[in-house]
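Model it.
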Amino acid sequence: MKKWVFILFCLWLFFNGIAQNFADKKFYLVDSLDLNKLTEEDKILLDSCLRVYHSTNLDTIKINALDVICENMIDNSWSKYLNFQLKLIEKSISLNPPTPTLNSLKIARAAALNNFGYIYMYQGDIDLALKYYLKSLKIVEELKDKKGIAAAYNNLGNIYDNQGDVPLALAYYHKCMKLENELNDKKGVASSLNNIGYIYHNQGDVELALEYYNKSLKIREGVGDKKGVATCLNNIAGVYSNKNDSVLALEYYKKSLKIREEIGDKKGMATSLNNMGLIYYNMGDISLAMECYYNSLKIRKEISDKLGLTTSFANIGGLYLDVGDIVNAKKMGEKGLQLSLELGYPDQIERTAGLLSKVYAKKGNFKSALEMRNLEIQMRDSILSENNMKASVQQQAKYDYEKRQVLKDAEHEKQLAVEQEAKSKQKVIIYSIALGLMLVILFLVFVFNRLQVTKKQKSIIEEQKTTVEKAHLLLEEKNEEIIASIRYSKRIQDALLTSQKYIERNIKRLKNN
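Modeled.
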């Protein structure tokens, strides 16, 4: 996506009339590039980037153009163009005050250093690769660029894996995956899972490798990463091949091949076909094996995949030897050996020399057979020496890891004891608080209940008081009525009866008469 955004920008600049003041030939970039190695798409891209690079005085645009060029370089001259880019970046950084642009330039510098690390790792110079990766990591850590840090962790994991330090490689892959999860970088997570699976695969733990490959596959299918899906399917097929399950291995290789054909991944197609050829060979189907090997060879010739070609020549030559075609076996073996010597890969030289040793022996050319046998043994010793060195590093790494693990376990147990004690104390506190709360709740329930009872009793008393008051009023009314009745009767009586004084007066008068 990045390169196509830039190519559109390049075309926009071109059609808006940037003057093409090209530099002298000695300053040209990509002047030695083998265009036969590039697709038409890559040729258009690189042409556009070169036009922009030579047509602008803005260093930031030059840097971006070089970035796209370097991303698409596929030969050993890549480092030359990276040097151009790095010098431009450092020049721009020295001229820029602290600004967002300066941070962008620093990120570009970290990316360039990271690319140098990749080059040296590809060339087999692990110490220099590690040096550049660590320089890149330091910059992105200062800038707190999580994406850059994740990329650096991934590359360091690759370095330590190549050195045989499996624990450290796994540690960096897991650190990388943690950051990728924080960034929600699903493709990155899938890649890390695949890398971890690859380590376990090489360690012989095929079940764990299969688990990680399947996790990676699920994510890649979810995000529509077809190239990643094809890679996972190929790796899963490799696991089943190791388990001697040729049927399942072939099924997954075919699935991988189909996707690679859909997306035009020629290198991947050649790999899948080669792997399928090996499966057919193990199944005893020499005809289909030969067909797959030749189809793989054809593609590898198209894309100039020299390393792949050495494998194809060796595989085809081995098949011809098995069926007794000594002429074609010799032809393929000699091509493979010549290319292997040119590339300098000991394992490929060993394989093709071993093939030619058998071919010459069958032809009766024992002198040449002995020469090839000696070359085979020489390369085997070289590989064995390298493997022993890796094994030694790996053993030391394993010892250090186990030592660290013992210390971690002891510390972990101590921490568990402290946590257990803390948990016990916490439980006591919790139970005490719970008991206290329960007592408070019970007290509140009791008080509430008493309040309810008191309220009810008060209500009853109030009702009784009202009744008494009513009765009292009624009684007073009755008393007043009775008193009034008595008074009224008394007045009537007084009115009807002669007064005492009147009687006494009349009696006295009668006596006088």
